Amino acid sequence: MSLANDVVLDVRGLHKRFTLHLRGGVELPVLHDVSLQVRRGDCVALVGPSGQGKSTLMKCLYGSYGADAGQIVFQGEGGLLDLAQASPHQMLAQRRRAIAYVSQFLRTVPRVPALDVVAERALQAHPEPADGEPDDEAQHAEALETARDAARVLLRRLNLPTALWSLPPATFSGGEQQRINIARGFVEPARLLLLDEPTASLDAANRRVVVQLIEEAKARGTAVVGIFHDEEVRDAVATRCVELGTPSDR
Amino acid sequence: MTSIEPLLQVRALGHRFPSVRGGPWAVCDASFELFAGEVVAIVGESGSGKSTLLNAVGARLRPLAGQVLYRTAAGAWVDVHAAPERQRRELARSEWGFVEQAAADGLRLNVSAGANIGERLMGRGDRHYGRLRATAADWMQRVELDPARIDDAPRAFSGGMRQRLQIARNLVTQPRLVLMDEPTSGLDVSVQARLLDLIRHLSQRLHLCALIVTHDLGVARLLAQRTLVMHEGRIVEQGLTDRVLDDPQHPYTQLLVSSVVAP
Known about the structure:
The complex is a heterodimer. By secondary structure, chain A is α/β, with parallel strands linked by helices. Chain A is built from seven helices and nine strands, in the order E-E-E-H-E-E-H-E-H-H-H-E-H-E-H-E. In chain A, helix 3 crosses helix 4 and helix 3 packs parallel to helix 5. At the A-B interface, strand 1 and helix 2 of A face helix 7, helix 8, helix 9 and helix 10 of B.
């Protein structure tokens, strides 16, 4: 495996099919020979009608779906890694900091306040105490406060009312939950940022904030892959559009 | 990251209960590894062998086949079931914790909450009353129990409070590995949420490894980075929790995932 210096992600001949054992083993081919290269500062928009596997590709990149064939070469922390072959621990290590994913749904432990849902990602990104080390309360409190500060900055930019920060997001509206998810994705700069319709439930003002956040991430060198059904947002952020073809054997 | 050493290795573990002559293996050919700082869930239906596997890993049951290797705080690998009983007991009360499904099984109901928490510290040789009491009060606070109730017996506690007390009792010696058998089942939803939050928080803060048996896929989703799926005594699938739940490969896992409302 090798990649040019500024290439963050190189998907080569990716195939993904679902085998439904409960339906007599029927096979649903979704991704057929998908190849895609994303460089630092690129924002690739996946386009095309529903059912072409846009979300499936995103989940393969994040490791939530396995790949049947092909490579997902990622210039990660500690060198090149084929995400299609990565072990769970390798994938988790990349997710801690290098790969961020803003999904359409927010799933959180019920009692955790919105601010900490966001801060958690920033906290995780920084080295944990090594095996066997005593837990240092003061050090943890400081790291938590730093992470919360970063979370506050984003929640403020995304116009989430401060009254909500200390509440768990389960009862929030769709748009509020989406902003928590966005803040979580942006709170720690990633090498690869995956955005699955990040503006679907947002008003125009917050859409503009998200566009700004994406532009800032690109300027920092983050490689972005996204699904943007909102054409205005897509035109504003995408450096390139990629259409996933219909699997020929479907 | 890939080169870090596991904390525990389970190799080809198998067990059959002698009372069931010629019966099926309760656990068959189970192999997996655990690492510091991670939460791993074992899911599967009742009778799939989850608890038997957990008990064999925790040396509460001697398996008929296979090995459990544990790396101690001192860095030495111990073949848990081949080790002398004394060493197993020592590990169980210092480096390991075991949280029972029924808190009553894991607590001494007639002695005070404080004494329940202090017991493991005393087993370690700590005899200073004031310090034991202060540590117990501190742990009651950490699991959100009112330290003013330090002298109450757990008999007077609700189910959720007992479960939190059991967790405090286990974690007070800062174990490196905690095994939990359905820690949240049978509790009200709100109490369950509080317990989930607590377990997640403690595993992150204390860098401990937790192996949790649960039939609740939602619990696995929220707590565990990795999940093992058991079916008829075998681990049929294991991997990242979101991968196992969102892209299940084994027919049984597909059935399990499709059978719940929102996994």
